[in-house]
Design brief:
mainly alpha
């Protein structure tokens, strides 16, 4: 009796901490997917609005558009992968996933702020681009905060049982 009572009272604070982090982790994954999706949309905008005067402009236009499609797709993939049980159950996998995404979203925010979409677009599109960059930096900071939390979501659920 005394052992189970002691174990329950010691386990209560970590449970509460884990429950409090779960919504933050979900919000970060959703915002990360939104940022990646918006980066993909920016690449589509680049493809639809080419500014080509010569072969060199064409090469840059193609490379920038492909970069946006590939990077946007990779960001969405890693957000989905970050929610999989194989990643969330293991502290190291979860921490590496979140740290990698922290670096990714920091870079993405920096890239978006000065990208072609921000330079050659109207005021509305420029506002969307800058908001995407700021959200990307917020996600990077949040990923850094939760990277070393008490395990991923899978461990959160196991601790609650």
């Amino acid at each position: 009796y005394h052992q189970s009572r002691a174990r329950t009272s010691c386990a209560t604070p970590p449970r509460l901490a884990m429950i409090g982090l779960r919504p933050l982790k979900v919000v970060l994954r959703v915002l990360g997917a939104v940022v990646s999706g918006l980066f993909f949309v920016q690449a589509v905008w680049i493809f639809v609005n080419p500014e080509l005067q010569d072969f060199w402009d064409f090469c840059h236009w193609l490379a920038e558009g492909l970069l946006g499609v590939i990077v946007g797709g990779i960001g969405c993939y890693f957000e989905v992968r970050g929610g999989m049980v194989s990643v969330t159950r293991h502290f190291r996998s979860y921490a590496l996933n979140r740290l990698g995404l922290c670096i990714f979203y920091f870079w993405l925010g920096c890239y978006i702020m000065g990208g072609m979409g921000a330079k050659h677009a109207g005021e509305t599109w420029r506002s969307v681009v800058h908001a995407t960059g700021f959200i990307s930096w917020i996600v990077a900071g949040g990923d850094l905060l939760v990277a070393f939390s008490a395990g991923g979501s899978g461990e959160d659920e196991e601790a609650l049982n």
